[in-house]
Amino acid sequence: MSIRVMVDMSVILLHHGHIRLLRKAAKYGEVVVGLSTDKDIEKYKGHTPLLTWEFRKEILESIRYVSAVVEVPYIITEAVLDEHGVQFLVHGDDNFNTISEDRLIILPRTPAISSSMLLAYNRRIKIIPYATASDCNVY
User: pLDDT tens-digit profile of 71-115?
Assistant: First the structure.
């Protein structure tokens, strides 16, 4: 049986920190991205994602380090890992999930980057108006 690792993400706005984390996670095994739902992002981060869950999934599936993308709750438990046949959770050093240490791989975050930071910067300098996923549905 091959090792499967889960990287839980919201990917409100994909950036190089996400790619670096996925690349590092792939060294531990087959990468399954646990992608937060739109509702959970609204609940835990306080805003609607820019892209729907389906669009964020499509983007992640195009990354070579990712073998699968699955819907998960914002807080990951060992039951979530077991449900998806995953042995380990790979997370940045800001982990808040309820996973035992023997199933958790902590990696340092990429300094000075996060989706929330990019969105806040965008709002402050007003490069583009803030839009929600419903504003962007063009198909």
Answer: 999 999 999 999 999 999 998 877 677 898 899 998 877 655 566
User: Tokens 């940045």 — which residue?
Assistant: 92
Residues whose CB is less than 8 angstroms from the CB of residue 31 and which lie 6 or more positions away in sequence, other chains included? 4, 5, 6, 7, 22, 25, 65, 66, 67, 90
Residues that are catalytic: 43, 45
Residue 17 Cα distances to 23, 26, 47, 52, 99, angstroms: 10, 14, 21, 20, 22
Record the pTM.
Answer: 0.79
As given in the structure block, the two tokens for residue 125 are: 């300098």
Provide φ and ψ at 8, rounded to 5°: -90, 135
Question: What is the count of structural domains for the chain?
Answer: 1
Task: Kindly report the CATH number assigned to the domain that includes residue 69.
Answer: 3.40.50.620
What is the side-by-side order of every strand in the sheet holding 4-9?
66-72, 30-36, 4-9, 88-92, 104-107
Q: Which domain holds residue 9?
A: 4-136
